[in-house]
Design a protein that fits this description.
5 helices; globular; alpha+beta; 8-stranded antiparallel β-sheet; Pnp Oxidase, Chain A; two-stranded antiparallel sheet; 10 strands; about 30% helix
Length: about 140
C-alpha cells in the first residue's frame, strides 16, 4: 500500500535519520549530495568544506532536502522538504556543532571538523569550513508498506 506520511511521521523520520541529501542548483544543473545532519524540529544543521555544494547554496539559497528509510523495496518511507540555506557563525555555529555532536556522536570527524579543518586527513584553511542550516518551509512524505 502506498500512502502519504502524516506530519508526525515526517517529523519522526527527519529526527531519526543520520544522512540526507541536499538538492541545489549548481553550474546550470541540479546537484544532489549526501550530508550527515541534525534536525531541531525547524532546521537541518550540517557543515561542509568549501566546495561546489557551499558555493551553489550561497548563489541559490533555495534548496531541497530529502531523507529516506528502507526496510526493503516494498517497505520504505521518504521525506522531501524545501527551505533556505543560511551560513552560521558565532553562537549559531556553536549550536550547530553541539547538535551535530549530540545527534551523531563524539566522532572525531564530526565533533572537530569545524575546528580542526581536516577533511579525510588533509588540512584545510580554517575559513574553508562552513557551518550551515536549512530553514525548512515545506515538508511532505510518502511511504509503502
Amino acid at each position: 500500500m502506498l500512502g502519504e506520511l502524516k506530519p508526525h511521521d515526517v517529523e519522526d523520520l527527519l529526527t531519526r535519520a543520520n544522512v540526507g541529501r541536499i538538492g541545489c542548483y549548481a553550474a546550470g544543473r541540479v546537484y544532489v549530495v549526501p550530508v550527515s545532519y541534525a534536525y531541531d524540529g525547524e532546521s537541518i544543521y550540517a557543515h561542509s568544506a568549501d566546495g561546489l555544494k557551499i558555493r551553489s547554496m550561497r548563489a541559490f539559497p533555495r534548496v531541497c532536502f530529502q531523507v529516506d528509510h528502507f526496510v526493503n523495496l516494498a517497505n520504505w518511507s521518504s521525506v522531501i522538504a524545501w527551505g533556505t540555506y543560511e551560513e552560521l557563525g558565532g553562537a549559531l555555529e556553536e549550536r550547530a556543532s553541539s547538535l551535530l555532536v549530540s545527534r551523531l556522536g563524539p566522532l572525531r570527524a564530526i565533533a572537530t571538523a569545524m575546528r580542526d579543518t581536516r577533511v579525510h586527513g588533509v588540512a584545510l584553511e580554517a575559513s574553508r569550513m562552513t557551518a550551515f542550516r536549512i530553514r525548512l518551509k515545506e515538508k511532505t512524505g510518502r511511504f509503502e508498506r
